[in-house]
Amino acid sequence: MLLDEHNSKLLFDKAHLPVPRGSAVFPGEEDDFAPDFPLPWFLKAQVLSGGRGKAGGILRLDNPADFPAKARKLFGREIKGEAVPFIRVEPGEEIAHEFYLSLTVSREQRCILLTAGRRGGVNIEKLGADNLLVQRITLPGGLEPHQIRAAFFHLGLDGDHFQNFANLLDALFRCTLDNGLLLAEINPLILTPDGRLLALDGKVEMDDNFVDLHPEAEIYHQREHAAPEENRARDAGLSFVRLPGWVGLMVNGAGLAMATMDLLNFSGLPASNFLDLGGAADQKRMEIALELLFGDDRVEIVFINLFGGILSCEKVALAMKGALRGQSPKKPVVVRMSGKDAMAGLKILRELDVDDLHLAEDMQAAIAILDTLRPAGATPVDYPSPPDIPLGPRPASVGWKSAAAFTIGADTPILVQGITGREGRLHTQLMQEYGANVVAGVTPFKGGGEMLGVPVYDSIAQAARAHNIGASIIFVPPRMAADAVAEAASNAIPWVVCITEGITQHEMLAAFQQAKGSPSRIVGPNTPGIIVPGQTKIGIMPTMPFMPGPVAVLSRSGTLTYEVADRLTRAGIGQSLCVGIGGDPFIGVNFVDMFEMIRNHDETKAVIVLGEIGGQAEENLAEYVVRTGFDKPVISFIAGQTAPAGKRLGHAGAILESGGGIAHKLETMGKAGFAVCPSLESVAETTARILK
What we know:
31% of the residues lie in helices and 23% in strands. The strands form 7 sheets. Strands 1, 8, 9, 10, 11, 12 and 13 form a 7-stranded antiparallel beta sheet that branches.
């Protein structure tokens, strides 16, 4: 959740950081505004995009009589396509010097970065190599006194300012921890002629997972920055992002939603939105989702694309039946269902016998139907064709040796953390039905009983005394899940699979730091788990799409895993193992770790990598494959190629950086000898060709 300057300063002020006095003024309030602070005043447009100063979004005022006109001028301005919903008015401050100061959660370095700049303002990274000092802060350790001193001396402040600077930086760090901040930036931090340090401008990004767990943080969310449908979706718990097209999109699962968005955009049927129903599609959520799409004047057609994994297509169809209430949809709707209970779901919708409801069993058939419904004069959106990535040479063997081994099989003894909860109980039963060897469960203060014939203990330490544990799977609520990971790692459980999503990034950084030195392999969080088809399942994956065979599937997305496994199985290609590495920014086992094991896995003859925008996981894998001469063929697919820069799509880890990151990702994989598939449709075909 990105905060505007005004709300960032409200948060800073609450954390006892020095900020200028200021007031928010909304349209209609400008005629009556009469602050008690001295002139000059600065009127500052409140938008989430940067560069407002260059765009005329900050105005100086020396005469109060001019305020209404200047305020209205800002209210009528657009900054990088963003309307100005309100302004912040502050008194002017005399400036002796401008500095830069920030705390940022770094995905690449897996820590918090403290950055101090001798000069602040715009383009600070271009002010010379000596301007910035960057220091790593690890959690749970925290900010060290020597780091405060290093930042202070780097800025070149006089010694009599040290205590004020130390107090300010300590308050900024506490504010970051206490509010789950991913970014806390002061730019500029000013020194006034009378010796005060002041946060003249501020920018804050708050972890969405923290906001979900702390509803009181919603006071910093300014609804005026979002479109009405985005606010409605947020209230309903739906993941929704507005896009520039005219095909309304509704999908279950972020990975499949991104892949579907790409397919539409590449097919000249531009998506008007990204909408992920998630794993819950009851009638209420379905009604809200349809209302959002039907009520959007830009939407001409609606495409509902569902793969039944955990989610039953039949239940979704019943929810949709209830939402339509026997009436034809307000706009043409194309529904594609595949996977669990798909035939039953399509039968329910077919029997509705209403106009403008079109059914398809696969995505290509759905695209063909959508194309026939294309409205005359529909506004085109300029998306490029899917890139044709040439297949580079297979890496040369360099004699790389690895002692890593994939050790999960039919006999692996499994511990379930959170076994007595609803999700833990349900999936323990499903794992048992698949033949998984569940030997113990842990729920604090529930020890001594049994669940589904499995003994329950109060702690892993107790369970480990009574059982040999080969893997743990975690079904623990987000507030406690990071500690559950740390507990399993501290007991040296060989594999730790964390299903839980919604864990804050700070807590996972701390858990991974605590797990350093442990032999545990941590999978996730936010993972569907692991399945070895025909042998065992440690996760929530549906078993229907999978069958034993020679291809390993590694993925950052659960729904993409099920979708691709189903396509492979229908093509007669089985899977040796399938691992969801997790969709969060901070995960344990990554693609490289899995490849180290797979190179020694005789049952695996080829590997499919299902990636997403954001991060460097796929680039790091490509570098590893070339450097170590990995000799098994690799097939890859990346979802989210047409995502707008800077927008987070469902998974916390899926955000497209500005500057063409996706092109570099695809090119790097191609040069490493990966067969880069342009669409989901080509994955099974490409795999079959390579296996032959």
